[in-house]
Design a protein that fits this description.
With 278 residues, this protein is an alpha+beta fold. The chain has two domains: 175 residues, Alpha-Beta Complex (Nucleoside Triphosphate Pyrophosphohydrolase), CATH 3.90.79; 50 residues, no CATH class. A hairpin with a 5-residue loop joins strand 10 and strand 11. It is globular and about 60 Å long.
């Protein structure tokens, strides 16, 4: 069971024209500084408050998008946080006008200007009478930071397929920018150590690459329980992240299917790679 004192967070894997959007966290960030990550961040009190004001049919829709939480208000709050943080970190607003249309480029840019000038995401949504497009969210992963880290987050990973033209404007204070990456390019950059990927980010990107299509990615990656790695450094300097189902993970009762990821390993000075069930 996840400790309720560990903050909840949400992140979104944005997929557009066969590319994924990653931001680089600011080097002074208190968590995962300089890492390349999906846009996202922690749940705050306003997300919960907004969730309580939405109609039951919208709350139930969010529960369908995040069934792991088993309760509509919590599911709605984490979905709201996912789209709010995406906008705040990347400038990408996943919402529709009151007429039901996706925002055009000019509307997106005006929202980005308002956001960077100090207007809150919630105020921008309210003033324009826009509606967050929860229906395009799909859950694909659920990770809990291991106890060895000082800062821990209970993080829900969503994905969505962007088909409309999109403008980006990464937060200049919290990030060192962001860009669209092909999967081939991001893994090549990682192999050259030009980018840093944390285990959850690496795993999700690898799953996306393995799926080959967005539809298969969504279909195959349906999280049912949280993943909290068991971390071990061996005498050769190789760092292991044991996952549920691995003999060295506390949740040994879980029987992963053949081909399932049961660990990640990173040799000293090297890169992450997955260990799969035989």
């Amino acid at each position: 069971m996840v400790n309720e004192k560990i903050p909840m967070a949400a992140t979104v894997v944005l997929w557009h024209n066969n590319k994924v959007f990653l931001i680089q966290r600011h080097k002074k960030s208190g968590f995962m500084g300089k890492a390349h990550v999906f846009p996202g961040g922690r749940l705050d009190d306003e997300d919960i408050q907004k969730a309580t004001t939405l109609e039951p049919k919208i709350q139930n829709l969010c529960l369908q998008r995040c069934p792991m939480l088993k309760e509509p208000i919590s599911a709605t709050a984490i979905c709201w946080a996912a789209l709010r943080e995406t906008a705040e970190e990347s400038g990408i607003f996943i919402c529709k006008t009151k007429e039901g249309d996706w925002l055009n480029i000019e509307e997106q840019k005006q929202a980005q200007i308002a956001l960077r000038s100090g207007r809150s995401f919630n105020d921008i949504i309210h003033e324009n009478q826009w509606r967050l497009a929860f229906e395009v969210l799909y859950p694909v992963a659920w990770w809990l930071t291991p106890p060895i880290e000082k800062k821990r987050f209970n993080t829900f990973f969503f994905t969505l397929l962007l088909t409309q033209e999109t403008a980006v404007a990464p937060d200049p204070h919290e990030t060192h920018g962001g860009q669209w990456w092909s999967l081939k390019t991001i893994f090549e950059a990682y192999a050259k150590k030009a980018v840093f990927l944390a285990p959850p980010t690496f795993s999700v990107l690898e799953d996306l690459k393995e799926a080959s299509t967005f539809e298969k990615f969504v279909q195959v990656n349906r999280p049912h329980s949280v993943i909290c790695p068991q971390v071990e450094l061996n005498k050769n300097g190789t760092l292991y992240f044991f996952l549920p189902g691995h003999p060295k993970h506390p949740e040994t009762n879980k029987k992963p299917a053949t081909g399932a990821r049961i660990a990640l390993k990173m040799p000293q000075g090297g890169c992450l790679s997955s260990v799969f069930m035989d």
